[in-house]
Design brief:
57% of the residues lie in helices and 3% in strands. The chain has 204 residues and is mostly helical. The protein has a two-stranded antiparallel ribbon.
Length: 204
């Protein structure tokens, strides 16, 4: 029986299905939680009653009213906030479009089931397109910025009490060794000792 080829590094096998579903659920819950807080705040400031229709119904996003444009602004700000969660949960620029589009597709299903009709307002569709583009572009930029950050591996420090003399070679020997002219190799193969060269050796 032939052996199965191991999955390549960075393949989908690194992301188990349960983890993907959990991340999508967290993003979707945060999507509605942030939107609810923003819409509730704007409703209280405007002196209007708050209802779930403002969050889940596409009929609230009307282009001929100020309330509809205010709700659109809240949804755009919600997309910006969700970029932070994409950076924390996904952390891979190539997976950002999948998660961002999945969130908007699930929102389409939820609002269609809630209103029992497919959205027909042009403002709603335009808002979803702008929100998805904003989330994908900012999310990919943030994840790539995080991926391309230089990694710091630390810096070797000189051992206190061991003076560095005789230039760079003895400085390296004192840093890696136990004393002047003696030390242990970086590979741990054994100890070594630095000795001076004789005149006969130099003439070879």
């Amino acid at each position: 029986m032939p052996r199965r080829r191991p999955p390549r590094a960075g393949a989908l096998a690194d992301l188990p299905p349960l983890k993907i579903l959990r991340q999508i659920a967290m993003l979707q819950a945060a999507w509605y939680a942030v939107a609810t807080v923003m819409i509730l705040f704007t409703s209280l400031v405007a002196g209007k009653a708050f209802s779930l229709d403002l969050v889940l119904s596409w009929r609230s996003l009307r282009g001929d009213t100020t309330a509809g444009w205010t709700l659109g602004l809240c949804w755009l700000l919600d997309s910006v906030v969700l970029v932070i969660l994409l950076l924390l949960l996904v952390s891979r620029s190539k997976l950002v479009p999948d998660f961002a589009l999945t969130v908007h597709f699930l929102h389409l299903l939820v609002t269609s089931l809630y209103a029992r009709a497919v959205p027909t307002y042009w403002l709603w569709w335009g808002l979803q397109a702008c929100s998805a583009a904003l989330m994908v572009s900012l999310g990919m930029w943030a994840c790539r910025w995080r991926e391309l950050r230089p990694m710091s591996f630390g810096k070797a420090k000189e051992t206190p009490g061991l003076p560095v003399e005789g230039g760079e070679e003895e400085g390296v020997a004192s840093m890696w060794g136990r004393g002047r002219g003696r030390g242990r190799g970086r590979d741990g193969a054994g100890e070594y000792e630095m000795v001076g060269m004789k005149e006969g050796d130099e003439a070879v």
